[in-house]
Amino acid sequence: MTVRYDDLSVEWLGYATARVSADDGPVVYTDPGRYGVLDDYWARDGDVVVVTHDHHYDPAGIRSVADADATLVIYDAVDPERIGRDVESIEALSADYDVVRVDDEARIDVETDDGTVTVWTVAAHNEPNGPCASDDGTVPHPEGFGCGFLFSVGDRTVLWPGDGDALDGLAELDVGVLLANIGGGGIVSDRHAAADLAERMAPELVVPIHYDTFDDLEADGEAFAGDVASRSIPVALDERSTNG
């Protein structure tokens, strides 16, 4: 099911992959691939593809969604040599696409045939004293390991916060559509923290993603939607894709 909001379309394809587009406008994909979520998916219509961190780096997924003229916006800490999977290098991708590496304070304008996409990076990490930390402060996503992305599509801004806690600073952003990370599991914010963030942020629409892909990310999307709706925040589920 594709979620429609005015002229904006949001489709969750599983795991951290969302397709966001505006009518007659550019197409943006978040963190495409992994865990088979893009098996047999070859749209190759993405004008902009954003990649937040090592865990979500999947060159095969990128190639299945990216248009031939796509711009890949990849966080500068993403390091294929550090990833414990056999993955294509970023240099190899740069032979076929325009690759832009960004730090955690970036703002770039990407020109496409269907309009400009402005991309900002935002902080994404687990706090060493937060809900995902071990007793010694070790976390799955330390500061500097990854980022989130705020991007414009048509007249709206869309936030994919990436992997981390529901950081207080995110609530200060001007967000039209929040792709809420609700997987929990001691890895990222759970549905309760994500609902609290949505209430503080007050976006125009919330669409939960990044859950039910594997056991550690099991979450109740319907309960999250009910919680958010009870706070007078519009919310929609893309239930077609919740099998991850």
TrEMBL record:
InterPro entries: RibonucZ/Hydroxyglut_hydro, UPF0173_UPF0282_UlaG_hydrolase. It comes from the Archaea. This is L-ascorbate metabolism protein UlaG, beta-lactamase superfamily. It comes from Halorubrum aquaticum.
